[in-house]
From TrEMBL:
InterPro entries: Cro/C1-type_HTH, Lambda_DNA-bd_dom_sf. This is DNA-binding helix-turn-helix protein. Transmembrane segments: none annotated. The keyword 4Fe-4S does not apply. Keywords: DNA-binding. Residues 7-60 form the HTH cro/C1-type domain.
Amino acid sequence: MELDKKLKDLRTYHGLKQKELAKAINVSSSTISGYENGKNPDYNTLVKLANYFKVSVDYLLDNSPVKLSYDELNSEFQLSKRKYSSLKLIEMIKELDTSDQEAIIYILESFSEKIKYQKEIKIHMK
């Protein structure tokens, strides 16, 4: 996906108008419009956009399918009494043989589907 489309997708996903995003990163709304219509931002603005949306510059430039920034991937979260970062978990999975990796993916996908289903039920019960 091109930068212009990716930027517009991020902005609309976050429920922002061009004017709101422009104010947040200190540019004009016509500048945001230009970016969403194919004009390329300078490096400093690209970094501001990445930081604002909490994505990597590589993600914006379509060099990485990973939406999260390195800091977010490397940040720790607590599971029971252990702390993990997403990067550490990825490293652990990479060390497994293929069948074990596939089992982990299956389990994660199953839990993800369960969570989506539970969210849908909550929405319908309101």
